[in-house]
Structure formats: structure tokens, C-alpha cells
Specification:
Chain B: It is an enzyme of class 2 (transferase). Chain B: This is Peptidoglycan glycosyltransferase MrdB. Chain B: It is found in: Cell inner membrane; Membrane. Chain B: Pathway: Cell wall biogenesis; peptidoglycan biosynthesis. The structure holds two protein chains of two kinds. Chain A is of the alpha+beta class. Chain A folds into two domains: about 190 residues, Penicillin-binding protein 2a (Domain 2) (Alpha-Beta Complex); about 325 residues, DD-peptidase/beta-lactamase superfamily (Beta-lactamase), CATH 3.40.710. Chain A contains 23 helices and 19 strands. In chain A, helix 15 crosses helix 17 and helix 17 crosses helix 20. Chain B is mostly helical. Chain B has two domains: about 200 residues, no CATH class; about 130 residues. Chain B has 15 helices and three strands. Chain B has a three-stranded antiparallel sheet with strand order 1-2-3. Chain B is globular. The chains are: A alpha+beta, B mainly alpha. Chains A and B meet through helix 1 and helix 2 of A and helix 8, helix 11, helix 13 and helix 14 of B.
Chain lengths: ~625, ~375
């Protein structure tokens, strides 16, 4: 419909316009209602959701890690402590340009390639968001100052003082205390949800030794802190706080003085010393040499350091006392002897003639005595004192492997002693069943004969030998070696009852003669001793000598020399210490291991003036359900 | 007798010739001025909190508002016929300046929007066009018979989209949309046939995806992406919108209280004093605060429509309606984007957001509205 072109129809225009204005106004109203509706939806329907989001934004719950418990020896000497370490840390979520930031930090403090590598590894491994990642620890005062001054140019970078585990005595306790190191994602994965919650915020985790075994007591309980932060993560105020429960301080049965004596006495030789108080199973010294520097592991050991330990032929990371399996050699003779006496196979009066070897009837094989020309007429006493092999070949053969196995088991040979450390080796106490299962071959008489002098298949750890000695020294009373002073642990099996109780005493006196007798194999130990001690030496073959060969120790490489062993206890009347010493390739138990054992016993039994002063056993809370009648 | 005539005969209604108060003598419209002052005052209150308690920011904004009021006062004195007379020339000047911006403009944040004029400092020619484009189209239609014929529509579209394209290439999507809207409102008010409107809507629906893929810059496209799915990148592009929704939503009905908004005060909300200031209001004053703000806005818009309705000739009528509608589009786009209804385009909350040129432009448009209202003559046609 066309209208005239010439004249403006004002009324018509006005009507159209008014209508359009009305449409416009209605549109405004409609769109306003849309906006209001949107706001109502956000502020009323979704209010609680957005309140939560807003609170999550500003309120952060931070886990406050509990301080780890200290570890002391029985006299309160601190063996593991926490000390502040100043470290530069990055909160990745707040760092705008990581590479530039790292470069800038590198200009302010020295960053080793190792630091960066470790940092990048932590960066890529799964972690909690907003968790600071340490870049370098052990900052010096000057470095801290440089970082602090440049803080404003380094968003997301901070210097934090974190408690770091510290072992003031370093190598001395390395194998018994173990060490903590950084808690890893794998550690967390392996935990239950409750444990994970408890470890929120914790940086360290007991990895080996006492630190590992008593992790649950040393760790404590996590605390929480609700803080209000701004968008850059800066804490503005603390809203609520629940302090952590600190980890328990752990007092060990170890005695610093005895440990030090054992460590020093071993010197630079490879070996192990375990000293136990037979009265209660307290472990007085627990040394494996060489040790390692535990402080290196705490914040992640560097590649070079770790490689150095791994490539060291002396294997410093190996816990010889706990896991070293050695043929016990002649140190088993007192136990075999008791077994024979108890079984009635022999008695104290019976003698045999030792021509320097032992032969089974109808068999040409000669089992040689260590003394080529033999000991002549030998009884039990002489066989132990002079360590006659032939006597024990004969006795072992008569006793048989089954009875031998049964009797020695009661001394915790062939099974873990139950010490409060993980990964204890059980050693090996051979039996017919074992050989069939493990080797698939039947048991031979020769196996029994080898076992009767602690060779052949038989293997024991220094810890087992010390435990067995403690049991013997206390006339069959069972003990479980224990490191935590407040743990009284039930014995693993009933006490050993001999048919003739006198045999204990006589065997003890026989062992006393090993030290104090004129022909004893450990008589070197007796020098100027203000107390009486019992002992039994041993050598364990590393290298087996062929039938017609003679043993020429000069020609053997040092590493193939026999290991030197000794088990000992003192004072004979009321034993307060049992010691097992192993010196790898130390050749002679008496001359090499004996003096070590003596120094350990002196450290425990003598006062500062060299007078005998037997310390009383640790007072302990009676164990619940301790009732072996 | 029409309603309008009835109203005109009522005492105390209408133009300055009917009243003798101070506002009337200064060619000011009292209700509109009161609403604007109330809005400015409320805006400053929110700004104080949004700026983290910075009095300096508030003073600078107050100064700017004062300047805007001065512009309003001056423009209110100029009679509408002068606007009508100057509209084509200002429009032409604006287009020339826009071409200059494209050629020699100063870059800021990846877009060349500014023009440096020695002695005058820098300014955005696009701001002039917010007024010049609707004025030009209104002038064009005031010379024609209404409703417009197709050729007139095409000419009007050309007049609108020449500057719009020049601004869009700067690139400044927000401003070009607002200017296009201002021009199109004139077209609509002039009586554009519903059939053409329907056609345009259909064309737009087809064009939008094509625009997205072939015309938009990467940063503009990412804004649209973010709008469609803000949670895709909560720490990056989606951060603004998530945080502003959180701020508004957590405000609830009554809000957290003035200076108590954690989202803005703890820096979670970016642009909290400029484009996203509504989120601060929503957080601290809640739905109540928002409804109050909307009420003031709607009073202003309503008054604008009333002025437009009362205007006596086509130019004023169309321009007043367009300026009023543009003002509302500001509000709608800003509230829509801050509340997550619309993609983020840089449109400030009118007269509340902290910032320069838009305040002056808006005050100028209200000055023109007042001029139209107060220069009416009692006449019949």
C-alpha cells in the first residue's frame, strides 16, 4: 500500500512511532525480567553452591604436619632430631613463567644441575596442587637475603624454614636408625584414606631402620589450619586452627657408649656387632660397618652420592647385622654340645680320639679338623675350649639333623628373632625337608657333619647369634631383641628346659675357659679383665678348600679369607650382655673378633674408672599377657 | 483527542514554558537528573569497595562524572534543531576520524582505537559515533516519509554499517555492536516493516556461525568459546566469568555487606572496578542491591522513552528513542555478560563502571535528551 509521497502524514507517523515505542518498552521490560530472572537464579537458587565456591576460593584448609618425634638412646642422648632448614620453594600455580623464574633464581643462589633435575622430577610426578615444591635447601644467610630482597620480582617463590630430620651421629647409627626421606606419591597411594589424611602436609617418611618400624609412633597426628587467602595465595588471616599432635619421642635401648665402642672397635673392617642385654632383650649396640651417611638421604640423595654407595665393593648400604647371612662356624658348637647332652648322645665324660679328621664308616672321605694333626683324646670341655671339629663331627652325626634342627630352632636360629626392625633375614637352619624343597636333593650324612660345625648350608645373622647367645647365657630364658625402650615384647616361644639343668652351668664354664683357660681360642680377650666372660670363637669359610689342597691363606685374595666370628657374654655369674661379632675376612675369631667383643663388653660393664659396675636392666612396664609359667 | 493532547493540557506537565524552577530554566529535566545523580552516587559507593577502598579512584571517578554533568549541562542548552542541523557534518567528521584511526591509530592491548591529536591528547573517535550514528540516521529519516521504503532502509543501513565496520576492524566488537544497535533502533522506531525485521533475524541466525568462523579474531572467538563453556579453562579464559558468577551467587538476597565481598576484596574477581563492577554490587548488596540498581536504570530508561514519546518532531523522537534504547542495551549486555548470560564483550556498566570516555558520552546523550524535552514548544500541528 503506497502513500502519497509529497506530504508527511504526521498522525500516521506518530501512531507508528508510538506503537514501536511501546514495543521497545515491552522489549525493555522483557529483557529486564530476563536479567532479574538470571540474578534470582544465581543469588537465590544457586546461592548455596556459589557460597561454597566462594569459600573454597578464599578459605584454604592447610594441613599442618606434626613435628616428628625425637629418637634418643637409653640415656637421652639424641640420635635423631629435627632442625630448621631454609629452602627456596616454588608454588607452581603462582609462577607466571617457570623457566624465567628458574633462571632468575639461578642468578641469586647457586643451583646445581642436580637441584634442577630433582625439582623437575618432583614437578612432573603427581602432587597436591598449591603444594610448594622445594628447589634447593641448605640456603646460606646471604642467599636468603638475596632471595628476600628480590621477592617482589619472583611471584610464587618463597623461602621457607622447614624442619628437616637430622642425625647428629651420622654413620654411627645409620643401620639401626635408618633414615627418613621425602614422602612420595607412591607412599600415599599405598596408604589407606585415613592414613593419607594423616600424612597431608607431611614431607618425610621413615624409610628404613627404626625410623621405618616406628613410623606410626614417630609421625604424630596432622593438624589443620583454615586460612583466608587472596587470589595470589597469600595468607591474610587464620580462621581456625587445630594444632597437630607431635610424634612421640622414642627412647631406644641402645647405649651410645656401647654403640660407639663397637663401632670404633670394628675400625675400618667390614663387619657387624650386635650386643643384647640377656636380662630383657634390650639391644645395647647394633653396628654394621661400613655405615652410610643418613643425612644425605633426607632430602633426596644426589646421583653421585648414591652411585658412590652402590658401586662401593664394601657395600655400605647393606645391613650386615640384620641381613648378612654367614655360616656361623664353630660358634654353634656350644649349642650343638647342649643338644647332644640333652639328647643323651654324649655326656661330659665321654672322650673320642681325634686323629685330625673324621671318617664315616665305609666312606673314604675325610672331614678334616682345623688342626691338621688332631687334638688327640677330646671330651666335651676340650672340644669346645679348643674348638675341636672332629668331636662335633662325631656328635653331630650321632645326633642327626632332625634333632639338631629342632634344638637350634629354639635359639631363634633359622627364623627371625622378632627384633623391631623390618626385613630381618631368617638365616638358614637346614633340614631334610628344606633340602628336598629347596635343592631337590636328598639329605646326606655329609650335610649333617658340615652342619655340626656350623658350615655347609647353615647360615645365621649376627643378630641371631647374639640372640642365641643371650638365650644360652640366661639358661634358656627366651628373649626378643628390642630397640624401643618402652616395648616389652612377649617371647616368641617357651623357654628352653634341659633334662639336666646343670648342663647350662657347665657349658657356661666351658665357654669361660675359652677366654680364661690357658688353651682357650679366645684367651686374648681375657687380658686384664676385671670380670669373667664366656665366649666361643668361629671362623666361617668363604672359600671351600679342596680335598687334597692345603689352606694357604697368603695366596687367597683378601676377600676370600674366612670370616671371623665370636659370641660372648659377661659377667659369667650374672650375664648382663651378650655380644656377637662378625668381621668379614677377619680370619681368626679369637684374635680379630675377640678384642672387639671385649671392648663392647667393657663399655657396658665398666664405669669410667674401669671398675666393674653392671648397669641394671631398663625398668619397663610389664607386658600385658606376659605369662609363661 | 489523543492521550498526548490530554496530557499536554494538564497543568504542570511538559516543557519549561510550563514551569519556572531552576532545573527548568537550565533546560534540565529534574526526574532524569535526580535518577542520574542517584545512580552516580550509588556507583561511587560500589566503586569504593571494588577499588579496594581507594579514595583516589573514587575522586577521579567523581571528577569524571562531574565533567560528564558539565557536558550534559552544556548540551542541554543547545536546541534540538541544531543537533539536527549538525548531525550530517559530525557524522562525516566521525567517519573521517575512524578512517584515520585505521590508518594511523595508536595501539593499546592489541587494538588500535585511539587517535592522538596534538594538543588535545588522545581519544576514541568511536565514542563520537555512539551519538553521531543514531543522530545521522534520525536526520535521514526526518527528511523522508515514514514508514521508510526499501531504498531508504538500504541507505540507512549503509549509513550505519560504514562506521560499524570501521570500528569492528580496529577491532572493537563491543563498541561496534552498540553503535550498530543504536542505528538499528532508529530504523526500528522509524517503522521498519516487520517482514524485513523477520528477514534480518533469520539472516543473523545464519550469519552468526559464519561470522564466528571467518570474521572474528582469535581473541574474540576465544571469548565466545569461553562463554559457551567457561569451565573448560577455569584458570585461564573462563576465570573471569566463573569468579563473577561466584561473586554474584554468593551474595545471595541481601549480600555480604559493603566492603565485605570476599571475591573482589581478595582479588579473585578481575576487572572488579571496571567491566565487572556489577559482580561487586551483587556480592556485597545481593539481589536487593541489584533490584535497586535496576529500578534506577528503568526509571532513567522510562523517562527516556517518555521524552521520546513527547518529542514533537521525527528527529528528536527517533534520536531520543535510540539513545534511550542504547543505554538499555549497555545495561543488558553488561549485566548479561557479568552474570554469564552473554559472552564477554568489553561493555561497561553505564555510569557505574570506572572509566573515562563512556561516562562523557552517556552524559552527553542525556544532555541531548534533556534538550529535546526542554525545548518543546506548546504547539499544535
Amino acid at each position: 500500500m503506497r502513500r502519497p509521497l509529497t506530504l508527511k502524514d504526521h498522525h500516521h507517523e506518530q501512531r507508528i512511532f508510538s506503537f514501536r515505542l511501546l514495543v521497545g518498552a515491552l522489549l525493555v521490560v522483557a529483557l529486564s525480567l530476563v536479567l532479574v530472572g538470571r540474578m534470582v537464579w544465581l543469588q537465590v537458587s544457586q546461592h548455596s553452591r556459589y557460597t561454597t565456591l566462594s569459600d573454597e576460593n578464599r578459605v584454604q584448609t592447610q594441613a599442618v604436619p606434626p613435628p616428628r618425634g625425637l629418637i634418643t638412646d637409653r640415656n637421652g642422648e639424641i640420635l635423631a632430631a629435627n632442625r630448621p632448614d631454609f629452602a627456596v620453594e616454588l608454588i607452581i600455580e603462582q609462577v607466571p613463567d617457570l623457566e624465567a623464574t628458574l633462571t632468575r633464581i639461578g642468578q641469586l643462589v647457586t643451583l646445581e644441575p642436580d637441584d634442577l633435575e630433582r625439582f623437575r622430577k618432583r614437578l612432573t610426578s603427581p602432587r597436591r596442587p598449591w603444594d610448594p615444591i622445594p628447589l634447593r635447601g641448605r640456603l646460606g644467610e646471604e642467599e636468603i637475603a638475596r632471595l628476600t630482597v628480590n621477592q617482589h620480582r619472583l611471584p610464587g617463590v618463597r623461602v621457607a624454614a622447614n624442619p628437616v630430620r637430622h642425625y647428629p651421629h651420622g654413620k654411627l647409627f645409620s643401620h639401626v636408625l635408618g633414615y627418613v626421606n621425602r614422602l612420595s606419591a607412591e607412599d600415599l597411594d599405598a596408604m589407606t584414606l585415613t592414613e593419607q589424611a594423616d600424612y597431608a602436609g607431611t614431607h618425610y617418611y621413615g624409610r628404613t631402620g627404626v625410623e621405618r618400624y616406628y613410623e606410626h609412633r614417630l609421625h604424630g597426628q596432622v593438624g589443620y589450619r583454615q586460612v583466608e587467602t587472596n587470589a595470589r595465595g597469600r595468607i591474610l588471616r587464620v580462621l581456625e586452627e587445630q594444632p597437630p599432635v607431635p610424634g612421640e619421642n622414642l627412647r631406644l635401648t641402645l647405649d651410645m657408649k656401647v654403640q660407639q665402642a663397637a663401632y670404633d672397635a670394628l675400625g675400618d673392617r667390614r663387619g657387624a656387632v650386635v650386643a643384647i642385654d640377656p636380662r630383657d632383650g634390650s639391644v645395647l649396640a647394633f653396628v654394621s660397618r661400613p655405615g652410610f651417611e643418613p643425612n644425605l638421604f633426607v632430602n633426596g640423595i644426589s646421583h653421585q652420592d648414591y652411585a658412590r654407595y652402590r658401586e662401593d665393593h664394601d657395600n655400605p648400604l647393606f645391613n650386615r647385622a640384620l641381613q648378612g647371612r654367614y655360616p656361623p662356624g664353630s660358634t654353634v658348637k656350644p649349642f650343638i654340645g647342649l643338644a647332644g647332652l640333652d639328647a643323651g648322645v654324649t655326656d661330659w665324660e665321654r672322650t673320642i680320639f681325634d686323629p685330625g679328621y673324621y671318617q664315616l664308616e665305609g666312606n673314604p672321605h675325610r672331614y678334616r679338623d682345623w688342626k691338621r694333626w688332631g687334638h688327640g683324646w677330646v671330651d666335651m670341655n676340650k672340644a669346645v675350649v679348643q674348638s675341636c671339629d672332629t668331636y662335633f663331627y662325631d656328635l653331630g652325626f650321632k645326633l642327626g639333623i632332625a634333632r639338631m634342627h629342632h634344638f637350634l630352632s629354639d635359639f631363634s636360629l633359622g627364623q627371625p628373632t622378632g627384633i623391631d626392625l623390618y626385613n630381618e633375614s631368617a638365616g638358614l637352619l637346614p633340614s631334610k625337608d628344606w633340602k628336598r624343597a629347596a635343592r631337590g636333593t636328598p639329605w646326606f650324612h655329609g650335610d649333617t657333619i658340615n652342619a655340626s660345625i656350623g658350615q655347609g648350608f647353615m647360615l645365621a645373622t649376627p643378630l641371631q647369634l647374639a640372640t642365641a647367645t643371650a638365650i644360652l647365657a640366661h639358661h634358656g630364658k627366651q628373649v626378643t631383641p628390642t630397640l624401643a625402650a618402652d616395648e616389652l615384647r612377649p617371647p616368641p616361644r617357651p623357654d628352653i628346659e634341659l633334662n639336666n639343668d646343670d648342663d647350662w652351668l657347665r657349658m657356661e664354664h666351658t665357654m669361660e675357659e675359652v677366654v680364661h683357660g690357658s688353651r682357650g681360642t679366645a684367651r686374648v680377650m681375657a687380658e686384664d679383665a676385671p670380670y669373667k666372660m664366656g665366649a666361643k670363637t668361629g671362623t666361617s669359610q668363604v672359600f671351600s678348600v679342596g680335598q687334597e689342597e692345603t689352606y694357604n691363606e697368603e695366596e687367597l685374595a683378601e676377600r676370600l679369607l674366612d670370616h671371623a666370628l665370636i659370641i660372648s657374654f659377661a659377667p659369667v655369674e650374672h650375664p648382663a650382655i651378650a655380644v656377637a661379632v662378625l668381621v668379614e675376612n677377619g680370619r681368626h675369631g679369637g684374635s680379630t673378633a675377640g678384642p672387639v667383643a671385649r671392648q663392647v663388653m667393657d663399655a657396658w660393664l665398666l664405669d669410667d674408672n674401669g671398675e666393674l659396675d653392671v648397669p641394671p636392666p631398663l625398668p619397663r612396664a610389664p607386658a600385658s599377657g606376659d605369662s609363661t609359667p | 483527542m489523543s492521550v498526548r493532547e490530554t496530557l499536554r493540557q494538564m497543568p504542570g506537565q511538559g516543557g519549561p514554558s510550563l514551569g519556572n524552577g531552576l532545573p527548568a530554566r537550565l533546560h534540565l529535566d529534574a526526574p532524569l537528573l535526580a535518577a542520574l545523580l542517584l545512580l552516580a552516587l550509588g556507583g561511587l559507593t560500589v566503586l569504593y569497595s571494588a577499588g579496594g577502598g581507594s579514595m583516589e579512584m573514587v575522586l577521579r571517578q567523581a571528577l569524571r562524572l562531574g565533567g560528564g554533568l558539565l557536558v550534559l549541562l552544556v548540551l542541554a542548552q543547545i536546541p534540538p534543531r541544531s543537533y539536527r542541523f549538525w548531525a550530517p557534518m559530525i557524522y562525516a567528521l566521525g567517519v573521517v576520524l575512524l578512517v584515520l584511526v585505521v590508518l594511523i591509530g595508536t595501539e593499546a592491548k592489541g587494538a588500535a582505537r585511539w587517535l592522538h591529536i596534538p594538543g588535545l591528547g588522545r581519544f576514541q573517535p568511536a565514542e563520537i559515533m555512539k551519538l553521531a550514528v543514531p543522530a545521522m540516521v534520525a536526520w535521514f529519516f526526518s527528511e523522508r516519509n515514514l514508514p521508510p521504503r526499501l531504498t531508504d532502509v538500504l541507505v540507512a543501513l549503509a549509513l550505519i554499517f560504514l562506521p560499524v565496520v570501521l570500528i569492528a576492524v580496529q577491532p572493537d566488537l563491543g563498541t561496534s555492536i552498540l553503535i550498530a544497535a543504536a542505528g538499528l533502533v532508529v530504523l526500528f522506531m522509524a517503522g521498519l516493516s516487520w517482514r524485513l525485521i523477520g528477514l534480518a533475524v533469520v539472516a543473523l541466525m545464519i550469519a552468526a556461525p559464519l561470522m564466528y568462523f571467518f570474521v572474528l579474531h582469535d581473541y574474540q572467538r576465544s571469548r565466545v568459546d569461553t562463554f559457551l563453556n567457561p569451565e573448560a579453562d577455569p584458570r585461564g579464559a573462563g576465570w573471569n566469568i566463573i569468579q563473577s558468577k561466584t561473586a554474584i551467587g554468593s551474595g545471595g538476597v541481601t549480600g555480604k555487606g559493603w566492603l565485605e565481598g570476599t571475591q573482589s576484596r581478595l582479588d579473585f574477581l578481575p576487572e572488579s572496578s571496571t567491566d565487572f563492577i556489577l559482580a561487586v554490587l551483587g556480592e556485597e548488596f545481593g539481589l536487593v542491591g541489584f533490584l535497586l540498581l535496576m529500578t534506577i536504570y528503568l526509571v532513567i530508561v522510562g523517562r527516556g522513552f517518555f521524552i521520546s514519546w513527547q518529542a514533537q518532531e521525527t528527529f528528536s523522537r527517533l534520536l531520543a528513542a535510540a539513545l534511550t534504547m542504547t543505554f538499555f542495551i549497555y545495561i543488558f549486555v553488561n549485566v548479561g555478560m557479568v552474570s554469564g548470560l552473554l559472552p564477554v564483550v568489553g561493555v561497561p556498566l553505564p555510569l557505574v563502571s570506572y572509566g573515562g570516555t563512556s561516562i562523557v558520552t552517556l552524559m552527553a546523550s542525556f544532555g541531548m535528551l534533556m534538550s529535546m524535552h526542554t525545548h518543546r514548544r506548546l504547539m499544535s500541528y
